[in-house]
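Checklist before submission:
- one chain only
- standard amino acids only
- sequence pasted in full

Submission:
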Amino acid sequence: MKRSDMKIFIVGAGHIGTALAAQLSRDGHEVTVIDREEEVIRSLADRIDAIGYEGNGASYNTLDELNAQDADILIAVTNSDEMNILSCFTAHMLGARHTIARIRDEDYASQNHFYKDKLGISMIINPELATAYEIFRTLRFPSATRVEVFAGGKAELVETTISETSPLCGRSLIDINRQMGINLLFCVVVRDGEPFVPKGDTEIRAGDIVYLTGAASEFHTSFKKLKMAFRPVTNVMIAGNDRITSYLGQLLVNQNVKVTIVDDDKEICERFTQRVKKAAVMNEDALRYFDLMTEQDLANTDAFIAITENDEYNLIAAMYAESQGIGKVISRISAKSRLKVLPKESKINIVSREDVAADRILGYARALLNAEDKNAVESLYRLMDGRIEFIEFKVSESDKHIHVPLKELKIRRNILISGIIRNSRMIIPRGDDVLLPYDTALVVTIGQQIASLDDIYE
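Returned file contents:
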């Protein structure tokens, strides 16, 4: 099935729906967006090459009129869980091949198997839980700004920014590998906003954003050799007032991390006390709470996370925490334009609940659409607004160039095989390595999208 043949319906034209529509339209798919608000649909149609329809995306009449039975995927991302569930169920009964629903309520989310088995929903995304996991993974590596997991946890992708004091600064990749003996692959470097696949003689510079892949077990060893911070955090302070805080707090206390949750709303604090039983909950404004902390308290705080619903407050609190010498600072933000207030030298990590959800849905949707009839795409992660993609392919006996040493292959520019998983073991690809049937190949692409493993070759 060619991309131009793909029909995708999106119910809900909010931040997530609009982001999905824009990217899927750029991918060449036929996209139809349904929303109740006429002005929202008109505005979307002016900016995106998609069909806009004002109406009820859960209505049988609406979906039938738009021929939703022909949909390859229907994605329901309105603000209503019930609306999303009903929309997916109706589309499934009409004959849509796949459906994806955004479900935030914890009671509903706990019934995933029922919705998938009985209502035909292919994927359920909980934006708050997905965001909590993204923050949690990042906290495992204090020097990392992003951590993604591949192949069921057997391989990881770590993003880090190179400082002037980094032992990597001023060294070529050949020197780093020869002198430090690390078992990681430098697969992408972003310099002055432009990503590229580095070569052996590429010299790492201060300010570079570097993406590394490797076995999960190798990162601790390699980061130690590189003298980069690798010790997981043990004491975390969170300013937050929504479900992300509850999910993240529980994930952290389950790992024996000391968690302090700060909020100035007494009722919200009482809920946190019930949801995250081992956390210390303080009924106080986070900025005022900083003034109450001693120098020893600040020194013992490994990370501060601001995930309230107020972008401006999060950024101010994060900048204040950074000024107090807290090593790892993360701020939730929904409007990227507000990032302009951050100083260029700031090391604050930014996370967006909406972007996390959109990326997870898009990755799953692309995997479904690209898999064709052999289910080759296992997972897909987008970085830098989709300019960089990491794709996990299952190698089949019918794929091209299996059993051929990688050094003999002609791979397209700005595409790299960044890892091979064989028999549950991560292999950093070298020239003499080959792809074999039943391997998992991790592929990174820059500025282009591929539908199958065969697309990586010239």
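Reviewer check: The chain has 15 helices and 22 strands.
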